[in-house]
Amino acid sequence: MRVVLAGSGSAVGKTTIATGIMRALSSEGVQPFKVGPDYIDPSYHTMATGNPSRNLDSFFMSEGQIREAFIRGMEASNARMAIIEGVRGLYEGISPINDVGSTASIAKALNAPVVLIINSRSLVKSAAAIVLGFKALDPEIKIEGVILNQVKNRRHYLKTKKAIEELSDTIVVGGIPRREDLKVEQRHLGLVPTVERENLKFSIEKWANAVKEYIDLDELKNIMKNAERIKGEREPLWQVKNHKKVKIGIAYDEAFNFYYIENLEALEDNKASLYYFSPIHDEEIPDVDGIYIGGGYPEIFAKELEKNTSMRNSIRKFHEDGKPIFGECGGLLYLSRSLDGHEMCNIFPYKSTMTRKVQGLSYVIAKSEIDNIISPKAQIFKGHEFHYSNIQITGNPQFAFKIQRGKGIKEGMDGLTSKKTLASYIHIHAASCPTFATTLTSSALDLG
């Protein structure tokens, strides 16, 4: 049982509706998925269902890898049904004419039915035209239902439902009314992360109650039940070459919580035991062989990070001892000299500052210029960047990566290196950099 909840565009209410549906059906066993490079929406899904949400992305993954990631997720949770939240509009990807990076590509790879979510404000008959257009653009996409959002009242809903069902031959499974209390707080990187939302459980229950009241969940389950068999082969997601036990520390707290679950599983598949620690609250890093500091919001907690001098000293000593540290985006800022004037770890002697405008927002293709702790020289891998910060580079630092698509840190280069520390603006997914876990664990074994 599976369904893709796709939008007719961005900001149509996909996340509140998808998360509400996931919560409403959670007692029946739901495995959540999110299309595209996203950390925050999946954290909402995870809280709603109790199962870790997983990302599916056709820029990072081949069709065979998409199927592998999907089935791996279903087997891990032993859930009865899969609910996949799309990204932006159903057909939006990196090209105006092909499917790469789009929700449509995931629906095709999984042979999954689609329910289209439409902002129906001021629409009645025109909503039918939207559905007809989405169905006609690609006949391979099976749009089996519609959910209306921003419905004015019962009369508006019934008129729009009649137009869509009679003119586009597509079932309308429900309509969510215009309600301010169903909106979600936003921030520059998207939805506010779950670790900061004390009232998130209450909000999710509110979304679920709205779903139960206004969406025909039995009809939605019928759409999922009628999904045809998944066709095509499965392909491995990453390399598994390290077979010796190793200990990897994972920075995880309010400041650092952007991790793809597959990255952590790839490390575990390569015999890593994971030890979580907090750069804000703990005095020092645990007894580990290597460290992984992911992305997040270090700028919001810069004062707290600065105040924890013992942790910063612990990480700096780990670096000076020649042990491997890998930092992604927020991790890069933490490993810099300072962040908006607050002292950080000073492994890289450069000031970092936040900006009002986005500095990097793109899928990335990079080539390793040197052997490093996640990839060998000449390796080409993919990732994504999304940041509102700058690193004030001086002198001639050594960069590990040359950017072929994207921006990077400076003049098309990324991946600052110092001893065995590597830090980059690039967020990677283990499927898009298959050497990541094997190389990092091997480096930790050799140097830890």
TrEMBL record:
Keyword Ribosomal protein assigned: no
Residue runs in coiled coils: none
CDD domains for the chain: CobB_N, GATase1_CobB
Pathway(s) it belongs to: Cofactor biosynthesis; adenosylcobalamin biosynthesis; cob(II)yrinate a,c-diamide from sirohydrochlorin (anaerobic route): step 10/10
InterPro entries: CbiA/CobB_synth, Class_I_gatase-like, CobQ/CobB/MinD/ParA_Nub-bd_dom, GATase_3, P-loop_NTPase
EC number from the UniProt entry: 6.3.5.11, 6.3.5.12
Domain CobB/CobQ-like glutamine amidotransferase: 247-431
Reactions catalysed according to its record: cob(II)yrinate + 2 L-glutamine + 2 ATP + 2 H2O = cob(II)yrinate a,c diamide + 2 L-glutamate + 2 ADP + 2 phosphate + 2 H(+); Ni-sirohydrochlorin + 2 L-glutamine + 2 ATP + 2 H2O = Ni-sirohydrochlorin a,c-diamide + 2 L-glutamate + 2 ADP + 2 phosphate + 2 H(+)
UniProt keyword Metal-binding present: no
Keywords: ATP-binding, Cobalamin biosynthesis, Glutamine amidotransferase, Ligase, Magnesium, Methanogenesis, Nucleotide-binding
Domain CobQ/CobB/MinD/ParA nucleotide binding: residue ranges: 4-189
Catalytic residues identified in the record: C329 (nucleophile)
Site (Increases nucleophilicity of active site Cys) residue list: H427
Co-factor(s): Mg(2+)
Domains as described in the record: Comprises of two domains. The C-terminal domain contains the binding site for glutamine and catalyzes the hydrolysis of this substrate to glutamate and ammonia. The N-terminal domain is anticipated to bind ATP, and cobyrinate or Ni-sirohydrochlorin, and catalyzes the ultimate synthesis of the diamide product. The ammonia produced via the glutaminase domain is probably translocated to the adjacent domain via a molecular tunnel, where it reacts with an activated intermediate.
Function statement: Catalyzes the ATP-dependent amidation of the two carboxylate groups at positions a and c of cobyrinate, using either L-glutamine or ammonia as the nitrogen source. Involved in the biosynthesis of the unique nickel-containing tetrapyrrole coenzyme F430, the prosthetic group of methyl-coenzyme M reductase (MCR), which plays a key role in methanogenesis and anaerobic methane oxidation. Catalyzes the ATP-dependent amidation of the two carboxylate groups at positions a and c of Ni-sirohydrochlorin, using L-glutamine or ammonia as the nitrogen source.
UniProt record similarity statement: Belongs to the CobB/CbiA family.
PANTHER family: COBYRINATE A,C-DIAMIDE SYNTHASE
Miscellaneous remark of the record: The a and c carboxylates of cobyrinate and Ni-sirohydrochlorin are activated for nucleophilic attack via formation of a phosphorylated intermediate by ATP. CbiA catalyzes first the amidation of the c-carboxylate, and then that of the a-carboxylate.
The protein's name: Cobyrinate a,c-diamide synthase
Species this chain originates from: Methanothermobacter tenebrarum
Gene of this entry: cbiA
